[in-house]
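Hey, can you fold this one?
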Amino acid sequence: MYYLYETYSKCYSRVKKSGFMITKDTMLQVRLVRVELDKSTEVLITNLWEEEGHRAEEFKDLYFMRWGIETNISVQKNILQLESFSGLTVHAVLQDFYATVMMANLHSILIKDAQQTIENTMGHRKYPMKVNKNKSFGKFKANLVSLFLNNDEEAILQKLHDHFVKDPIPIRKGRSFKRVKKNIQSKSKHKTFTNFKPSY
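Sure. Predicted structure:
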């Protein structure tokens, strides 16, 4: 019950910031769309109405488009440990947050050439291949400081490129996994400790 109240409070404050004045008696009209997946059924809530051109059949493709965003958030939280801060002050949290986002963006830029190399050299394999983000992040973080301080940036970039193309992982489309419902009270995998941050 507390979780539902907390969710309602967040929704209420966001609607109010958007310029809509609502009370406990205000009715909000939404649309429920049933999406049939291979092994389950999802019901989506939206304000995109069918009479405006948004047919129910289109929502399955829209549903899967969210995975790119969700997997990126997962990388930042689980691999880069976005929620693990080196301090407890607002300045320390903001500093670590923006540094992590910057690292994620720079990593995405640097692996593009490696991904192209993988596609050109491994196109004959059964499955398409992609850069292993877990391993590439480790090598990237180990060379991040040198990339900005060393005068031989080209050598470092080539070193990173050569590492990125090693140990690629296959892209197996159409895979699905049973969703495991977690305890709603455990919202984070990482705890914040004072003056703690993995050094890699």
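Residues 90-121 form the longest helix (32 residues). Let me know if you want another pass with a different chain boundary.
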